[in-house]
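Dear all,

This email documents one entry for the complex benchmark we are building for the journal club exercise. For each entry we list the sequence lines for every component of the assembly. Then comes the predicted three-dimensional structure of the complex as a token string, followed by one or two observations. Please use this as the template for your own entries, and keep the labels exactly as they appear.
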Amino acid sequence: MLKGKNKNALIIPLLAVLSGFIVGAVLMLVFGYNPIQNYVNLFAGAFGDVYSVSETLRNMTPLLLTGLGFAVSSKAGFFNIGGPGQYLMGWFSAVVFALHFHALPGIVLIIGSILCGALCGAIWSGIAGVLRAFFGTSEVISTIMLNYIALYYVNYAIKTWLAPKGSDSSPNIPKKASLCTDFLQNLTHGSTFHWGFFLAILCAFAVWFYFNKTCSGFEVRSVGMNPSASRYAGMNVKKTIIVAMIISGILAGMAGALDGIGNYQNISVSNSTPSVGFDGMAVALLAGENPIGMLFSALLFSALQIGGLSISVLSTTPSEIVNVVMASIIFFVGIKYAFEMLIIKGVIKKGAKAKEAGNQ
Amino acid sequence: MHINKKIASAIAATLMLGTVLVGCGNGNSGSEKVKHTAALVTDGGSIDDKSFNQSAWEGLEAWGKENKLEKGVNGYNYAQSNSDADFTPNINKLIKAKYSTIFGIGYKLAPAIKKTAKQNPKTNFVIIDDVVSGKNVASVTFKSEQSSFLAGVAAAETTKTNKVGFLGGVKSDVITTFEKGFIQGVHAVNPKITVDVKYAGSFTKADLGQSMATAMYNNGEDVIFHAAGGTGAGAFTAAKNLAKNGKKVWVIGVDQDQKADGAYKGGNVTLASAVKEVGNAAKDIANKAMKDKFPGGKVVTYDLKSKGVDLVNDNMSDSAWKVVQQYEQKIIKGDLTVKAK
């Protein structure tokens, strides 16, 4: 039997998801579209066959990792909005590594690229961590600013050093450095699925282990709950802040690296900071920052995104409706207190009724 | 306690319903009709971006309506890409939905088209603004330098300050073609006019476009030619704000006739529009594909002569418009060649 608190932790996200779908359905009805048909198309588009499932799992990979990254810093009490910048730095540096050391054997290239991506992500978030720990700079502001620095730096670097003249994307990385192998392509009917997925899953369990079974993870949680008490208990708060931010950056950087050498195989000039960095926050919030829960919330959001593409392909409904559903889910997670109140009220009411019945 | 059970059972019921429905969904692809169908994949913008994707979509819509097709699986449709990661899944979804001809709108889709075209030799693919080899791929290019040249002539004939500006999106071969054509046009009329070239580095940032255009106007440039998609929308806002305060400034639109974007209470800031008839091209190719004359493996080029590119007069003076027309004839007859680089 689950404990009361744990049960709520499961019921509230489920209610939020359900409510999100209902809001989407109501909206579709108002505009004269068929919600059932569209949701059927959505889920068929996300899970209907091997190809779709693999596409969904591939899309889930960066969502899960940026989500985990956000969760680690959040547990330490920091709102790391720098996911997009860390992701971009990871993507960029992984591609640079794979292009620059193209003579190395494939496996070394892959491991090197991922480590390089993780390192650059860590440096990027580490800057915000150090600023916070030693100067008290708000990490919200500094990570937002670092996102823009990453965006414009990467765009500049691509144009100046990587892209052939007249192009706005880098050359493709050598095939041996790619996480997307012919074997996987044949297995998944030509989808973009790559090995990085398994690494992401591994990371989710690693983060769970870190929080629940290690001393450092305990310190992170403790600092997040009460920095003063933690300091009094003899913990090094500054060190913990920086450690949490660095782990957060490693995960987001890794998300970028895996996308870079798994999905895109190159890097292009981006118009804006990659939205997957922000979507990761939604993944973490829906799962209540529980690493195992995030496996499911990342899968859900990925399914919504990939399945959502099918909506406009198969019907006349604009696929933007999916964004409404996703936003509503986050909204309902945000007002989880309302759900908690409803549940508590329901229990009290029933209690009162029982009492009445008893009195009669 | 009970309420929790109720909720749990409600969720379980919904999930079960969902599974049943998903099961049904697989049967959808069965409706076979021998009709030619076409769909496009956007390059990150939406189909109402007042620019490239919109023109393409309007062309495809017009084609569909002429042939009495409906929007949807048995007719014409679009798939919107929210990021570059969506290109391949979108194309594959369209292939699965059995569209006969698939358009990739913009050079950014070239790698995705190249890969999927190889895997699906029976589907027709069209790439706009780039060249992809393959028997089932038609490459569509535009001589934008010609319409940009005319935009340059229009700007040179209109400027009072002898300073004009060019605002580009992301710098790449496709966009520098606009820049080079524009500069040649300006200097053909008056080599003393200075052309200020700026790139925003983005096709989707109207706010950035606005601040850059405002700076350019404040620098004394009174005509700006933008080739910046959604970023260019900001140039119109900047021009309208200045025009409302009595400053005489102009924007030359791109891709579509952007006259409506320049309208404000009391006037209009759109001087002309260097249109790129992506829509006509899409319609043309879709028609050819329908008649089994799909130009697979070929590069189809649209220019001033074939009306694939053009300069539309929005608010030019009669004298300026006359000069533009003279140059247009020269280019069409081949007396004048505009360099793309």
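Observations: Chain A has a mean pLDDT of 90. Residues 56-292 of chain A form one domain.
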